[in-house]
Write the structure tokens for this entry.
Amino acid sequence: MVKSNPVLGIIGGGQLGAMLATAAKKLKIKTIVLSEDEKAPAKKFCDEIIISKYDKLKSIDNFVSKVDVVTFEFENIPFKVLKYISKIKPVFPKPSINQIVQNRFTEKNFINDIGIKTTNYALVKNQSDILNNEDLLPGLLKTCTLGYDGKGQFVLNNKKDASELAIQFNKEYILEKKVDLKKEISIVITRFLNNDFVIYEPIENLHVDQMLHKAKIPADIEKIISEKAQQQAKLIAEKLDYIGTMCVEYFIDKKNNLFVNEIAPRVHNSGHLTINTHNSSQFENHIRAVCNLEKVELKKIYNAEMINIIGEEIKTYREKLYSKNEFFFDYLKSEIKEKRKMGHLTIIKPQT
């Protein structure tokens, strides 16, 4: 059980770690970050940072000795590291969840096993597996593990694309049937230790080159889809025995069918606008849940649109002047890279 007013350990020092540390400070929770990056953005917002590889046992022991409960900002931390820590201090969400969602194939199996639809898919170990699943074309070939923001993903429109695919099959892939896409939405949900929930209304997402470009709230979808997506997200959180904030991403096809795309077992890019739209953001709710603090009733104050700022775009945004309804977030990353998320802009709007 988490003690009152605990010291929170956060594994990962990127922008999500920075925003978690900022939310914790608001709640008077001390944070210690473990990061491999000496120039981690979270360094400027946490109370203490430990720079180390995530599998270095001496550093892990030092980190664990200083904290009461541990969480993380990204899901690809080695499972054995999280499992080791969980034997000493509580880890939320629990490491077994990562075992499921770190692999796109096991993740989709889990979702289907609890009666929720995904697009059709198949495990791919070699080129023949693609050619033998012609019914899944056009489709997306993705690495089963790692890969995000379009990395490790290949669009296959037909068998010709599959036969000309120039990759080495030294890892497992998943082939997913393309959806006749109408919209993409996400549900950000927080589950507490007492099985209580906070669920944000659906957020509508626009992706460009498999990377989130814009997110807006409210989503322009039918009420029945909104309710179904929230119910499904709640079921997923319950079945995983999830503690903290997570995001469930969905496809809606042109026949209004709802499909789960993937689960993110952490705070999520599409939920950044909640910092400005609600009385309690996805980050604050995550801190409240993992630290066993009181849940606050969720209230939406504004509608909003969020724009991701990628790569060199950040230079322009750093020089702009903003109106009172615009909120610019600079992630303060030390190096500008192509297709790297450097910040975001949220534009709030009155509720109608």
About this structure: The radius of gyration is 20 Å. The first strand starts at residue 8 and ends at 11.
